[in-house]
């Protein structure tokens, strides 16, 4: 991933999907971007049997929720900034409220509620699809404008057709 891009020049959901496809962990877990708006991202994960806490369990490993929240929050930072610049997770705290059933898809709704020059602050409830009460709530902070590789959309590459 190289270069930077302004999200205003591209369809933000397409950029988010492309980003998700380029991150092997998100791709392998089967995360899908459902919506990306001004400062919010909705992501979905349909769990397979390999994501259960153990073979006999009817609930998911808590680490699956953690990964979903981290990915959704990172994309919500990009949505709020309206540009693709390097970021890094500083802190991610999870309140696990009830077991996440392994037979229901998870939906995470990450909202970037405050930006400073250096840090983004986010909140992200996670729901079992079809239920009104969240199974977990994540609170995260991300460092902005970190040094490192930049994300480049296919449309922003000079060799794109």
Automatic annotation (TrEMBL):
Source species, domain of life:
Bacteria
Q: Which residues form the Thioesterase domain?
A: 64-132
**Gene3D superfamilies, per this entry?**
Hotdog Thioesterase
A Gene Ontology MF term for this entry?
Answer: thiolester hydrolase activity
Pfam families assigned to the protein according to its UniProt record, in alphabetical order: 4HBT
Q: What is this protein called?
A: Thioesterase domain-containing protein
